[in-house]
């Protein structure tokens, strides 16, 4: 087995025992990247820097003062800033943009001796559910190159699934960590809004964005979560709480836990095999001693509309800074100021980004604000309340992550509305600011992975991972 | 005024003069941006100091780099609350920042973080004195926001076909003070603005310097038939950089609007730019004003919830405000209203007076010295009071020397000039320069006798009724004593002597 394929717990044990060197792990990952170049999971790979870092970490391991992530080789979604390197957001607009500073999460993982392998491919500015909107070309599904890995953290999910790195960071605004995790068959967690600092995460929709880990095991994802969570005075929306203690809960099982199945998440549009898998997951949990009940989230049908109003409104403002004036793409063919704005933005942004900027601009415009933006804010409150009420009847919710398994490249790209419906089970979680994890559970008839989503109350990362660990165990024994 | 006159004539007050034609009145509201004197910017730790090399006080946050996030400066909030309390406004228990979206190269994020639906301060009033009558101008709101950068065109390092952006000012904290449309004349607008400037200087929250842009004023103005309750169509005036130019621009615009209405036309709602040199206001290009700012709550900042205890702490630390101080000066020091008004113009001047007043009972004389010699010296030397070399105590001592007859008034002026030069204590100067006044009765009697003996003819003519010669004798005594004779005693002695002989 290549060191690139090892889960971190095993990897760390071997590094500690001296059976493996950090350099070998990095080289194995680089080899995987090279061997499966066609996946296009990475936008940039920092081989030399990673190898240099490997030597430093090796020293620390030998001295016995290595950090919690020593030797963990990470892919980082290319909308998270790393000082001195390109942060492209999968866009022509920032194709050559070099950040002068690092995101808080980067500082945190480096402080624990993780190794940064490179920046992963993504839908342009995290807008998409298939990684097809990237300026750097689509990422391909590791199991079937004709299919999408999901998005927008599709590069991170594909890289982890293809063992090009031990784990990865993604960002989740409406499902962008969980949906590609589900489609690629890896674990992906979106922490509670405010748990992880957004400082250095290039904003798509500020009130929804949250950085989260992708990994091949619940343990690895939990460890990474513990490291990246925590209060950051540079992010005003960061919550002043101790990071969650997840690892110590993973073995606790689910006996006595109440699992809610929201009836609205099993309605039409759900691929039959996915439904079967999730219901089977529920039965497994029941077998393990959990109580499964049906609950209702009555405003679910408004979630997609609400999400696309609020997310695009914020995006239209967040992306205003890309105007060609100070950094990023500037059209070479402009003579006046207005011309510079017009051409730079027309040429620098792809069609999906433009579509969302226009949508967002529209819903914030004078005369439409009340009908769209304000109404959507009210519905957001109702959706949040749905969850609060559901959590009076159960401890966590179990749902599908995505209505379908990985779809074919090009299948939905021409039909934005169908594409947006890929997020139907994930966006509510962002609107409510809740933690949720997607965990592989079963496969469809083509052998494509199916993801089960476990949603918890705010700050209950440990609880959702505890349930995920139980399902992971079941999935393995089945 | 003739009814056919195309230019309505306005009185000094800005109101149309009486005439046969319809009379109009103006309705003016001001939006004043005040740059706050915090040490660092409103959403990052960069310095706010003025005049640094371009783009040296910048960081990822104020440059709006991808991924950077704002963090609110507590001192900026405190300053805004100070202002809110000083004008008697209500501090909103929950204020919400909002994004004001528009494109401009000196606006790095493509939006300005401001406040919109839920500002920090609601209501309040600013009192102005119009023709001796106190008038309270109500405020709509005061909100906190960030400043934009500066577009640089006219520096030697800027090429002919380029505009450069200096981002040092990006993120400097501002408050915007929005008045209700209650000002009736350009004069009132000027008084309001002067009062506002005085207030922010008293509070120590801004330099209030309009020329440097620390205080910026936009004006909304409309006119309507006198007595009408319905508001006319308003225009917005921008680009005035002194109180005087605000007044002039308003005078111009009111005249323009009245002329349009008198000719049966309609005023168009638009934004006009004031051209100070040419004395005209002209419409901005329509494209520049076709803004829909698409305000929405700033998701990167949590609502600002102000602890009531903190508000009380700030209230307790407020300085005495100008009007209260003025009233107290009249009562406590027996000053005329006029003196008190001028002395309380700035907190520094008022403090100077008050520190000096502790050392002299002659407070009105002290006021004369400050409003006369001190202000004249500051003007001539173009220095601020902080750099004035005479400590208040020394000035009070000088006033005492003159009022107690130790030195003459003219010697007092000499001593003052010397104090300005050397910063020495007045007694020392009097001693060194031998400026002490001769008040010794026997010594002066001797001089008076000598003078009268030396001019028997003049004495004779005086006694025959040539009263004007009295000053001649005074002058001679002064000459004999090199100007040091106490004039009060000299007068008294001369009257006695000349009178005695006459009798």
Q: Report the β-strand fraction of chain A as a percent range.
A: 5-15%
Assembly type of the chains comes to heterodimer
- Name the pair of protein chains with the most residues at their interface, and give those residue counts: A-B, 46 and 29 residues
**What is the CATH top level name of the largest domain in chain A?**
Alpha Beta
CATH topology of the largest domain in chain A: Amidase signature (AS) enzymes
Distance between the termini of chain A: 23 Å
- How many DSSP H or I helices of chain B? 16
- Residue share in helices of chain B? 25-40%
| Tally of distinct domains of chain A | 2
The total of helices of chain A stands at 15
Question: Could you outline the blueprint of secondary structure elements for this entry?
Answer:
The complex is a heterodimer of chains A (478) and B (503).
Chain A: H1 8-17, H2 22-35, E1 42-45, H3 47-63, E2 73-77, H4 104-111, E3 115-120, H5 154-161, E4 167-171, H6 178-184, E5 187-190, E6 211-215, H7 218-228, E7 258-262, H8 272-287, E8 291-295, H9 303-318, H10 337-348, H11 351-364, H12 370-393, E9 396-400, H13 416-420, H14 427-432, E10 436-443, E11 449-455, H15 461-477
Helix pairs in contact in A: 2-3, 5-6, 9-11, 9-12
Chain B: E1 24-35, H1 74-86, E2 90-91, E3 94-95, E4 97-101, E5 111-115, E6 121-122, E7 125-130, E8 133-146, E9 150-152, E10 164-166, E11 173-179, H2 186-203, E12 215-225, E13 235-240, H3 243-262, E14 271-275, E15 280-283, H4 286-289, E16 296-297, E17 304-305, H5 308-316, H6 322-333, H7 337-343, H8 347-357, H9 363-381, H10 392-403, H11 409-422, H12 426-433, H13 441-454, H14 456-463, H15 469-480, H16 487-502
Parallel strand pairs in B: 13-14
Antiparallel strand pairs in B: 1-11, 1-12, 2-6, 3-17, 4-5, 4-16, 6-8, 7-8, 8-11, 9-10, 12-13, 14-15
Helix pairs in contact in B: 2-3, 6-7, 8-10, 10-11, 13-15, 13-16, 15-16
